Amino acid sequence: MLKILSSTVLLALAAAPAWAQTTPPAASQPAEPAMPGTQQLHGRADENVMRQAEDAFGTSVGRETIGLYNSSSVRGFSPVAAGNARIEGLYFDQVWGLTPRIRRSTNIRVGISAQGYPFPAPTGIVDYSFRKPGDRARLALVTGGDSYGGAYIEADGELPLARSLNLGIGTAVGSNEYPNGTDSRYRNAALSLRWQPAASLEIVPFWHRAETYDDEKAPSFLPAGSHLPPRIERRRFKGPEWADFRTTAMNYGGLATLRANEDWTVRAGVFRSLYNDHRAFTHLLTGVTLDGSANRRLIVDPPAENASTSGELRLTRVVVEGPRLHNLHFSVRGRDRQRRYDGSQAFDLGRTTIDAPYSAPEPAFVFGEQTRDRTRQWTGGFAYDGRWRKVGEIGFSLQKTDYRKRLQKPGLPLATAEDKPWLYNLTAAGHLGPKLVAFGSFTRGLEESGVAPSNALNRNELLPAIRTTQGDLGLRYALSPEMKLVATVFDLRKPYFNFDAGNRYAQLGDVQNRGLEMSLAGALSPRLNVVAGAVLSRPRATGEGVRLGRVGERPVGMSRRSAEFNLDWRTPWLEGLSLDMTASHSGAITATVDNRVAIPERTLVALSGRYRFKLGEQPASLRVAVNNVFDTYGWELRGAGAYDVITGRLVSAYLSVDL
Question: Which of 384-388, 506-510, 609-613 has the lowest mean pLDDT?
Answer without folding.
Answer: 506-510
